[in-house]
Structure formats: structure tokens, C-alpha cells
Automatic annotation (TrEMBL):
Name this polypeptide is given: Glycosidase
InterPro entries cross-referenced by the UniProt entry: Glyco_hydro_beta-prop_sf, Mannoside_phosphorylase
Record keywords, A-Z: Glycosyltransferase, Transferase
GO molecular function annotations of the record: glycosyltransferase activity
Keyword Transport: no
Record bears the keyword Disulfide bond: no
Length: 127
């Protein structure tokens, strides 16, 4: 049995006010360990779902860590809501590696098509 210990009462990632696409919340991440790095794809929102202003669009961000505690993230989202099934954005990513290919499953929040699948290449850490 694996016993886990919480290192802090604080989250690993917090919203970044200077990035409007993730200014309110970051949550529901997927993480995978590969080549001595922890790769994280997380869901982020621009405003709260009960907010009075703004479109409330979800986006997926990317962060990378050498130790799984301190993460560096990209300034822009890695997946935008540019197709019909993601009109309100992608949500809740999951990552799996099969052979040498990474696959990401996620929910497309748009009304008609709830599940989405994409093939990803984790080259983002080299940016």
C-alpha cells in the first residue's frame, strides 16, 4: 500500500490574475511523469460560473515540474475552444501514454458532444 502525505495546505497551482484566461480558477488537472519531469495539463477559467460578467470559457493550460511541487507554466492556454463541441471550452483532461504517444481525453463543454480525444506530444517542456 502507498501512503501519501500532504506537504502543504496550499494548492500547487493558483489562478494568475495577469493571465485573463486563468484569472479565476485552476483545477481538475491531469499529470504524467516522463523523462524526469511531471507534465501537468489543467483546466482554467476566466470568471466564476456564477460571475455576472464575462463569457465563462474554460481552457487547458500546461505546467511542468522537476519535483512535482514547484511548477512552471506557459502564459497561453494549450487548447482553445475553436470547434463546435468546445464552444465553452475543454474540461477535465486525462493523459495516458501508449508506446511513445501521449493521448489526452477531455470533455468538450459545448452542449452536444461531451467527449473528445486528441493526440498530444509533450514538447512543451522544451519551450
Amino acid at each position: 500500500m502507498i501512503k501519501l502525505k500532504r506537504l502543504s495546505d496550499q494548492p500547487i497551482l493558483l489562478p494568475k490574475k495577469e493571465h485573463p484566461w486563468e484569472a479565476t480558477a485552476v483545477f481538475n488537472c491531469a499529470a504524467i511523469y516522463d523523462n524526469d519531469l511531471v507534465h501537468m495539463i489543467y483546466r482554467a477559467t476566466d470568471i466564476s460560473p456564477n460571475g455576472k460578467e464575462g463569457p465563462y470559457i474554460n481552457r487547458l493550460g500546461y505546467a511542468v515540474s522537476k519535483d512535482g511541487i514547484y511548477f512552471n507554466r506557459l502564459e497561453q492556454p494549450i487548447l482553445l475552444n475553436n470547434v463546435e463541441q468546445e464552444a465553452r471550452g475543454p474540461e477535465d483532461p486525462r493523459i495516458v501514454k501508449i508506446d511513445d504517444t501521449f493521448y489526452m481525453m477531455y470533455t468538450g463543454y459545448g452542449g452536444r458532444f461531451p467527449e473528445c480525444l486528441t493526440k498530444i506530444i509533450l514538447l512543451l517542456a522544451k519551450r
